[in-house]
Amino acid sequence: MEKIKIQYLNDTIERLCYIDGKSDWIDLRAAEEVELKAGEFRLVHLGVAMQLPEGYEAHIVPRSSTFKNFGILQTNHMGVIDETYCGPGDWWRMPVYAVRDTVIHVNDRICQFRLMRHQPVITFEECRLEGENRGGFGSTGVR
Ligand SMILES: O=c1ccn([C@H]2C[C@H](O)[C@@H](COP(=O)(O)OP(=O)(O)OP(=O)(O)O)O2)c(=O)[nH]1
Fold this sequence. Notes:
The protein is mainly beta. The protein has a domain at 25-117: Deoxyuridine triphosphatase (dUTPase) (Deoxyuridine 5'-Triphosphate Nucleotidohydrolase, Chain A), CATH 2.70.40. It has 1 helix and 11 strands. The protein has one helix spanning 66-70, and strands at residues 5-8, 26-29, 34-36, 41-45, 48-51, 56-62, 72-74, 79-81, 93-98, 102-104, 109-117. It has a 4-stranded antiparallel sheet. The structure holds deoxyuridine-5'-triphosphate (DUT). Deoxyuridine-5'-triphosphate binds next to strand 8 and strand 9. Keywords: Hydrolase, Nucleotide metabolism. GO terms for molecular function: dUTP diphosphatase activity; magnesium ion binding.
């Protein structure tokens, strides 16, 4: 088990809940009412700041229902929260783009996160590659 130190923006934000069994991703909620017109961008406050356990980062993605419910796209596609993003003012935010007029209310669950271990320390060794080309971008066809 790992412990995450967490700070909430205020008492209104519902506390995060780890639900074992169904999905270990943890839902995150909007901490402010946000009204967006089609084509507008906003960094939506998620109401939490955390000190992640040593050796971890967090990844944020939308819930699968987020686009259907709110008409918003996460503009960075996947948010990466560094272990060093841990100060009292390091609030988590979700960058969103609205494709239609929409309203997000306080405590609406708009995205989810999980912890990921850091990758190993790596170095780059410059060379000429000698393996076989695999090919990509649909090289195996569509059927
Ligand atoms: O969806 C996100 C992505 C990032 N962050 C915070 C945590 C992260 O540690 C910090 C910086 O993110 P990143 O390194 O991806 O952004 P950058 O554009 O490279 O900014 P910086 O120059 O601050 O590193 O912003 C969020 O709150 N939400």
